[in-house]
Amino acid sequence: MIYEPREDSILLEKQVSKLAFGRVLDLGTGSGIQALAALGNHDAGEVIAVDIDDEAIIALNDLIKLRKLRKIKALRSNLFENADGKFNTIIFNPPYLPQDKNIEDKAIYGGKHGWELSEQFFNQVSQHLAADGRILFLFSSLTNRAKIEELINLNLLQFRLLGQQKFSFEELYVYEITKSDLLRRLEARQLEQIHYFAKGQRGMIYTAWLDQSKLVKTHFAAKKQIKAAIKIKRPDSKAQQSIEHEVHWLKIVNKQGLGPKLLFYEEDFLVYEFVEGLFILEWIKLQDRSSIILILKSILGQCLILDTLGINKEEMHHPLKHIIITKDNKPALIDFERTVETNKPKNVTQFIEFICRIEEELKAKGLKADKARLRELAKEYKDSGDQQIIKEAVNSFY
Ligand SMILES: Nc1ncnc2c1ncn2[C@@H]1O[C@H](COP(=O)(O)OP(=O)(O)O)[C@@H](O)[C@H]1O
Ligand SMILES: [Mg+2]
Description:
With 398 residues, the protein is an alpha+beta fold. The protein is 36% helix and 27% strand.
């Protein structure tokens, strides 16, 4: 269905005529009202108008022909699917109503809660937006406003209210959304396709692709992309200097071949290699006895190195989310943010405690850890510092 422009379109149109500039993308163009408004602005160049609905595009193309509009191009596209290149202005008036079970209409409903399509939009938009670009976004109080703002922030964007209008049963908002300073700095360092990945205790993790050939001058022009993880501080975390701290310890453990490799950092973020794999318990569930013994040995080996360095990684008795096993069966310890110097290192003893705690999971794989014996060996090691004892500990599985 193509709808006649309503109040919401008119509210957005006002801002579009004032603020559209450079190369413009009008997403979900419908009747084309926003694309035409953008055309009217002298600062606007080429305007690409897209819609998922064929009917809308056919009608708009007829209008373009009739009025001989040369600067505007209409094409069918599901969100950014067929929109190539970067844009200075992206206009989006998404279907934002929560789904009505009985009616199927892509022009009105934005998903179960109304914001699902906007979520997809915010996850993808950075790649299509120039560094100085702006998004003109319209939504309603019937969509969850707090959720929309959360999605904007999560994607390292920032917003400003440009206009609002109240009706009897809803309120409409027009936001101008731009890249945050942090996002611009990350992109300036050749990080591409930056996506939110996970929330940790104190940090937020994003993934990205890093084109290393642009960083290191080589004779080879070939693109060498590696997957990177970016850690930034959680806005709600009170931890002091957590980035600086983790950088410090990563440099030290990296020298020993431990931890994800640090690539670069600034005051408020660090970029390191993304470790593709499974958390230790998930991995154990899929493996056989002999591979598990090898991995446990290898992790204990890494813990021994940490002990030798006189540092505590902390939480090694509960490393569920901090040990990732890669596809080629290498264990990687992550999250060195809480690492401290110590003369009583306990990485090894904590990890042995963890082995005792996952007794059931190991038993299911035919690995029976003699807990009493393991704990005894851990204590002997703690008192004597004799690493040989630990090698024996792993052999005590039967
Ligand atoms: N280098 C990495 N490779 C893969 N996943 C990572 C990496 N760093 C962090 N993660 C993921 O992000 C989550 C949170 O990271 P973490 O370093 O524990 O942050 P925090 O310091 O906030 O606890 C981890 O549990 C893991 O799932
Ligand atoms: Mg953590």
